[in-house]
Structure to design on (302 residues):
């Protein structure tokens, strides 16, 4: 059994509302957070105590995505659209009003921005023309999370209709409709080695899908309440989940065994629902954000 020592390195404050969005910068020393107060803040892992305000929008921010190739940050502005920030001079390049719905997730692939919204739509935007290319209506319920496989050939969407829908990334033709969850799917990630897709959601269970045929390999009752997000370590050996039950859990990505629980009682963790986690490429620390308006940074020693 792998032994893990957990050290809480930092608790960061500054947001005035629940923190919903988290994204690593092109230089992974830095990361961004977005919250219910409409603030988007840049943080430095080397000197994390003071964040820098990058943008302030009128409504809450549930989704942030970084376009590493263009060195840009894409902000999902609920009930309006997206704002694209040039990270070199930290100024807005352009924005597009595309929806009167919540924007739950954003992903970039090539010249396309994929935006998942509360009315079951995936809106595809061309970064070069800065215009909407396509509206893909995939459900009557919300598109909660998007995931692109490492090969860049497929995009998967987790939905509030309890399903996961997989599309060809180029043609946008549907390939698979995965139904096993009994409630909304909030968490979705391909492992870096492209062999499995893991999903989680309001039913508190993890589902392991084989990406060869998208057959269900395993179901794990993983948390007490909804699983809000999951993220792999860069090498694909481990992944981390976070939940409405206020805990972070670390898992072995080969055996799917639970290795560690990080919570308030044992490690002075978050006091309310944990909304997102990221496994830093910079120093392999875990970053977590919560309804408690705090950001925590955790060092894990294996």
């Amino acid at each position: 059994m792998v032994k893990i020592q957990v050290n809480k390195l930092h608790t960061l404050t500054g947001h005035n509302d629940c923190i919903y969005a988290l994204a690593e910068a092109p230089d992974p020393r830095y990361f961004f957070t977005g919250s219910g107060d409409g603030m988007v803040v840049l943080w430095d892992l080397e000197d994390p105590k003071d964040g820098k305000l990058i943008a302030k929008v009128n409504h809450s921010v549930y989704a942030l995505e970084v376009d590493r190739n263009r060195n840009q940050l894409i902000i999902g502005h609920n009930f309006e659209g997206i704002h694209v920030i040039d990270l070199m001079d930290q100024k807005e390049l352009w924005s597009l009003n595309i929806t009167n719905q919540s924007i739950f997730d954003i992903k970039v692939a090539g010249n396309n921005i994929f935006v998942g919204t509360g009315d079951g739509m995936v809106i595809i935007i061309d970064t070069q023309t800065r215009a909407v290319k396509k509206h893909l209506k995939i459900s009557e319920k919300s598109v909660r999370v998007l995931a692109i496989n490492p090969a860049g050939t497929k995009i998967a969407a987790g939905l509030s209709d309890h399903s996961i829908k997989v599309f060809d990334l180029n043609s946008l033709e549907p390939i698979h409709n995965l139904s096993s969850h009994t409630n909304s799917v909030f968490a979705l990630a391909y492992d870096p080695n492209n062999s499995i897709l893991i999903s989680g959601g309001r039913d508190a269970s993890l589902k392991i899908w084989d990406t060869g045929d998208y057959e269900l390999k395993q179901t794990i009752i993983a948390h007490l309440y909804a699983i809000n997000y999951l993220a792999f370590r860069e090498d694909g050996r481990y992944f981390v989940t976070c939940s409405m039950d206020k805990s972070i859990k670390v898992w072995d990505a080969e055996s799917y065994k639970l290795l560690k629980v990080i919570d308030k009682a044992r490690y002075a963790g978050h006091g309310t629902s944990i909304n997102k986690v990221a496994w830093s490429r910079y120093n392999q620390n875990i970053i977590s954000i919560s309804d408690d308006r705090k950001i925590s940074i955790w060092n894990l020693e294996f």
Summary: The radius of gyration is 18 Å. The CA atoms of residues 147 and 156 lie 5 Å apart.
